[in-house]
Specification:
Blueprint lengths: L15 E5 H4 L9 H13 L4 E3 L1 H4 L15 E5 L7 H16 L7 E5 L5 H4 L1 E4 L7
Antiparallel strand pairs: 1-3, 2-3, 4-5
Helix pairs in contact: 2-4
């Protein structure tokens, strides 16, 4: 993925690869949840389930109701040991790379349903319309 321009955290960890959302989708504001936008695109492109580790997972401040913004916005690709073949890994690289090649076409998202707790499990979203570029 790194050789294909996907901004992963280097070196990768023992059980997961993390994509740096801030570098992958710098034009989508945090208020439009770029991690969820990328997560959705990866699933639609190749049926690969990944996990946003960022603003949505961090939740809202209970006093202000404002989103918490962690230091890093990441997309987690967990890889269990001895489960997948090299062919599986090649497929994941191909799908993630293809999505990142089309990153300028991705749109942010907004909640259509946001549960009061654990929103990253059952929230529902819709795409935000692309802003006109000058």
């Amino acid at each position: 993925m790194r050789a294909n321009g996907v901004p992963i955290i280097w070196p990768p960890g023992g059980h997961a690869i993390y994509i740096n959302i801030s570098k992958a989708l710098p034009d989508i504001p945090l208020s439009e949840y770029p991690g969820v936008a990328l997560q959705n695109a990866v699933y639609l492109e190749g049926g690969i389930r990944v996990c946003e580790i960022g603003t949505v997972l961090a939740g809202r401040d209970p006093e202000t109701g404002e989103d918490r913004h962690p230091r890093f916005e990441l997309l987690r690709l967990a890889i269990p040991r001895r489960v997948y073949t090299q062919t599986h890994m090649d497929y994941v690289v191909k799908v993630i790379s293809a999505v990142c090649e089309k990153r300028s076409e991705l749109k942010g998202v907004r909640f259509t349903y946001e549960p009061p707790v654990l929103r990253h499990f059952t929230a529902e979203y819709e795409e935000v319309a692309l802003a006109a570029k000058p």
